[in-house]
Amino acid sequence: MPFRTRSAYAFLAPYLLVFATFWVWPIINSFLISFQNTRINPWKYSFQANWGRLFYDPAFYNALYNTLIILVIQVPVMIALATVMAVMLNSPLLKARPLFRFAFFAPVVVGEVAYAAVFRLMFSLDFGIINKLISAVGLSPVSWFDNANAAMALIILAVTWRWAGYNAIIILAGLQSIPEDVYEAATLDRVSKIQQFFHITLPLLKPIILFCVVLSVIGTMQLFTEPFLITNRGGPGGGTETLGLLLYRQGFTSLNFGYASAIAYTMAALAVAISLLNLWVGRDPK
Fold first, then answer.
1. What is the CATH number of the domain that holds 128?
2. Cα–Cα dist 161/158, whole Å
3. Over the range 171-182, which residues count as b (16 or more CB within 10 Å of their CB) and which as e?
4. Of 55, 202, 243, 273, which is most buried, counting CB atoms within 10 Å of its CB?
């Protein structure tokens, strides 16, 4: 091996050692733990204790159902909203565009505990501003934290509020990479702005939108903060419990590390499968 190559690997060695110790080995070890019954001492190999349990555990199916509901409803709504926001932010008619870009991106940098507390206050049954506005138009207040459907809607609303601006900034970067010549030629051909959006902007933005969809799918499969903090650990009655919350409950509350590892790898496999499906559906026809 040439001296320069050995020197390069010598400089990389500390990073590679840390990476292998704190990233690669935990991934491998957690996979091995998923095949062990960790409810006994000492731990013993048992495929049925963890992987077999997934097929008949109602808590797993409930968490999977809730996660997929959020995925199917929230992700398309958020991506559509982010696309509209990006188009508005890219408009030359908009004044103070940097200020609006910061405002839309700001929810991402807000502390999770702080924004969860604000949402709980806003949607409180007794003194929340949302129920005050609902009552002001003559409707009955909604018990957001005692009704499973209302709590799920609240989770979807919170996640959309937090991440729509983030995706809008990514899509905005894609918008700004589209040459102006394309729109000028379309304008000369008397193509309306709406037709330009659907026949020029969206097709050229498809790779960026797919990227945002994949990121959103991965994030939704790991969703934990909102159901844990806003709806009090997946309440009411597990109505908003997600796979990420179930993993936490099994691993850190019940100390069932083997089953938690099996759930974690199931989440990863589902995220990869759904992401690949999105990429396949969004591929360019040949």
1. 1.10.3720.10
2. 5
3. bbebbeeeeeee
4. 243
Across 225-249, average pLDDT: 93
Contact 60, 267 (CB under 8 A): no
The reported pLDDT for the residue numbered 286 is: 60
Work out how many domains the chain is built from and give that number.
1
Helix H or strand E encompassing 3: helix 3-19
- In DSSP terms, which residues pair with 45 in a beta bridge? 36
Residue 284 in this model has a pLDDT that exceeds 80: no
Q: How far apart are CA 48 and CA 161, in angstroms?
A: 41
Residue 55 three-state SS? helix
* Residue 130, domain extent: 56-282
Q: How far apart are CA 205 and CA 171, in angstroms?
A: 7
Kindly state whether residue 126 falls inside one of the protein's structural domains: yes
Neighbours of 233 (CB within 10 A): 15
Contact of 130 with 198, CB cutoff 8 Å: no
Distance, CA of 96 to CA of 12 (rounded, Å): 45
Indicate yes or no: pTM above 0.70: yes
Burial of 58 (0-12, 13-18, 19+ CB in 10 A): exposed
Is 7 domain-assigned? Answer: no
* Residue 24 within any structural domain of the chain: no
pLDDT tens-digit readout, 181-202: 888 888 888 888 889 888 889 9
Asked if omega into 285 is within 30° of 0 (cis), the reply is: no
Is the CB of residue 67 less than 8 Å from the CB of residue 223? yes
